[in-house]
């Protein structure tokens, strides 16, 4: 039974330019092309994301500049960061909104004296520091850090539901922070 296969490959290789090596190269190239055709949406996700996100209005862009596109928390009050997050959501930039909602949460923790922000902290370190200072916030801070990491460092595309969930986590954190006094937070932080 294997003789027919051997003869077929030998006959095709004799006919094919480059012989057996040329045939192998052609098979590999066809497999790569087929693989790219099948995986195209996953490999080129950044193209789909850039087509879906709406450009930020010039009115909004005066309030939101992407010059601080790093992970650093701008030196703005929580209310200003909240306005930025809402503007990103209104503009359809859900990825930017996820980042801003996380920044609002970090700013809330800083303003409540729950954490002392140190530039260069990872999202996980920030969530852990906040969870140590206010144990009731641990679950939601780690969820927010996970969502942010999936959107910014993973391949998850941000959608309205993602940004809305981050806003909900921020609202929950605000409720938890309202129950803590700065003195109680300082005692827990030690």
How many domains is the backbone divided into? 2
| Helix-residue proportion | over 70%
**CA gyration radius, whole angstroms:** 26 Å
Give the N-to-C terminal Cα separation.
77 Å
Strand content: under 5%
SSE series? HHHHHHHHHH
The helix/strand class is: mainly alpha
On the 0 to 100 scale, the average pLDDT is 77
Major sheet, described briefly? none
Unreliable spans are 45-69, 183-190
Shape: elongated
β-strand number: 0
Supply the number of helical segments.
10
Helices and strands, with pairings:
Elements lengths: L1 H14 L3 H25 L1 H8 L5 H6 L14 H14 L2 H18 L11 H11 L4 H15 L7 H20 L2 H8 L1
Quick description:
This protein is mainly α.
Structure description:
By secondary structure, the chain is mainly alpha-helical. It is built from ten helices and no strands. It folds into two domains: 2-43; 55-189, no CATH class. The N and C termini lie far apart (77 Å). Keywords: Membrane, Transmembrane, Transmembrane helix.
């Amino acid at each position: 039974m294997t003789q027919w296969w051997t003869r077929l490959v030998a006959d095709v290789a004799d006919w094919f330019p480059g012989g057996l090596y040329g045939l192998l190269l052609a098979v590999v190239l066809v497999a790569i092309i087929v693989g790219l055709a099948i995986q195209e949406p996953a490999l080129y996700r950044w193209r789909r994301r850039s087509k879906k996100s709406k450009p930020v209005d010039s009115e909004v862009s005066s309030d939101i500049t992407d010059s601080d596109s790093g992970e650093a928390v701008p030196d703005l009050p929580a209310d200003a960061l909240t306005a930025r997050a809402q503007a990103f959501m209104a503009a359809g930039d859900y990825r930017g909104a996820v980042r801003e909602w996380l920044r609002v949460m970090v700013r809330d923790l800083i303003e409540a004296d729950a954490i002392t922000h140190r530039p260069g902290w990872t999202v996980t370190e920030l969530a852990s520091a906040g969870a140590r200072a206010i144990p009731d916030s641990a679950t939601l801070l780690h969820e927010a850090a996970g969502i942010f990491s999936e959107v910014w460092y993973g391949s998850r595309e941000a959608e309205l539901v993602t940004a809305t969930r981050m806003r909900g986590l921020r609202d929950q954190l605000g409720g938890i922070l309202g129950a803590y006094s700065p003195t109680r937070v300082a005692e827990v932080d030690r």
